[in-house]
Amino acid sequence: MEGDDVTLREQLFHDRVRETIICVLLFSSLYILCYLVLTHYRRNADFATDNDEDATVNKIALWLCTFSLSVSVGAVLLLPISILSNEVLLSFPHSYYMQWLNGSLIHGLWNLVFLFSNLSLVFFLPFAYFFTESEGFAGSKKGVMARVYETAVVLLLLTLLVLGMVWVASALLNDTSARESLYDLWEYYLPYLYSCISLSGVLLLLLCTPLGLSRMFSVTGKLLVKPRLLEDLDDTMSCAMFEEAALSRKLNTETSCWINVNVDVLKTQFLTIQARRMALEMRRRASPWQRNLGYPFAMLLLLALTVVCVLIVCFHVLELLFDETALPRGMEVPLTDPLLGAASFSMFGSLGAAVQVILILYLMLSSVVGFYSSPLFSNLLPRAQDTTLTQIIGNCVCLLVLSSALPVFSRTLGITGFDLLGDFGRYNWLGNFHIVFLYNVLFAGLTSACLINTLTWAVQRELIRAFGLHKLPLTVSRSAIPLKLLLANGLSKIQ
Q1: Alpha carbon of 450 to those of 167, 200, 265, 306, 425: distances in Å?
Q2: Counting beta carbons within 10 angstroms of the beta carbon of residue 12, is it exposed (0 to 12), middle (13 to 18) or buried (19 or more)?
Q3: How far is CA 65 from CA 156, 370, 383, 395, 396, in A?
């Protein structure tokens, strides 16, 4: 018996060491990747100053932002990794090389991401912001440590203020629970705070994702070569080259006839015509397959993914009406690890699980596109080698809020049947039928409205461009153009 106990303890020790090594390797890879991304967007002047103190402070803040961004990427990959791990264990249940992939590892990843995401939101990113803005207390010796002391004091006061506001909110809702939270901080107070943060992230996803799903068509269209109906590409290219040459001659000439010309306006026009000419050259160099099939295939794929998302949410709405188990909840295994490899989380097997992973990543990408497309957050859009450290911190906060809410968002909409692990399933509002039902209905309605609006305007715009009506004077309202004029202009071009 004693030998069996020793063997069991050794096995548990080796399992824990293996899981730690895997987590460290995964996080290190994400950290390096995120550091390369941030160094691509940061403003180099902030890190190459003559003041060594400011440069050191900026480097520490950048390291904290890199840590938070790597946690954000980890939160995005939580559900895909969990779903794919379950399918791999289903396909290879007795494989020796898959023994490291188990429920304990997946559960540990969920707990680590939950812990680090909340630490980043509550401590690391606020510390990075206050650290860059601090100068040290008045009368104290200047240096990095003086800034650390000031930042720690400000962060402590902010933490007390936030906790007090959360306690007041909980007291207004439930006085008994508020008194209990004073004596049981870890079991009630912090989960209530995490629940509020998660709810704000899910609401932000509700606003950004439908907008992003509609904007994905235009963003993808800018990256691909569009086919143009009833358009002579050679003539358009020649006109663009002549306009570019004329504007270049006006800018380079020094004769007296161009003295009164506004040079800034000419430069803007020249850059616009040059970008148009380069786009036309790219279209002309593109192969017929890429020009005629690539763009329609990409648009049909985006449309199919969006329609599938809406249909899944509509089906989930019906499930909520007739089945109480459709509500999102945590996996009820508090004392044991989740059992992976027992059954697929999709009724269509491995194919359905692959579709779930694609939809989850597609929704996250759409939410990011919608976030930066909204008027409220468009100023946060990072620019290569020209993004201030304050903007980087703001971007990291927003991306962390979106990504940490993605597992709850996907489970609430019924995109996947994978139950939430760890503290992700402890949010107070997850069991509220009215909130979950209203959330699904709003998402389906907003996404459908944005999709219909985007498709109708895109068809109208392409018809106007194809028939040459975009060259009409601006005083003419294109919405007032009759259908007969469209058909007559199109038939005359075809003849």
Answers
A1: 38, 22, 36, 11, 31
A2: exposed
A3: 20, 22, 16, 9, 6
330: which DSSP letter?
B
Q: Report the predicted TM-score, pTM, of the whole model to 2 decimal places.
A: 0.79
Report the pLDDT value the prediction gives residue 213, as an integer from 0 to 100: 86
pLDDT, tens digit, 9 for 90 and up, residues 358-406: 999 999 999 999 899 888 888 888 888 888 888 899 999 999 988 888 8
- CA distance linking residue 323 with residue 65, whole number of Å: 43
The pair of three-digit structure tokens given for residue 217, joined into one six-digit string: 């068509």
Residues contacting residue 357 through CB under 8 Å, at least 6 positions apart: 79, 80, 83, 84
Name the nearest CA neighbour of 447 among 209, 131, 249.
Answer: 209
Which tokens in the block code for residue 12? 């548990």
Mind listing the pLDDT tens digit for each residue in 76-123?
998 888 888 888 888 887 777 777 787 788 888 888 888 888 888 888
Which residues are bridge partners to 196 per DSSP?
Answer: none
What's the one-letter identity of residue 417?
G
Instruction: Write the CA distances from 322 to 182, 319, 332, 381, 443, integer angstroms.
Output: 39, 5, 22, 43, 20
Distance between CA 110 and CA 255 in Å, rounded?
A: 70
The 10 Å Cβ neighbour count of residue 402 is 24
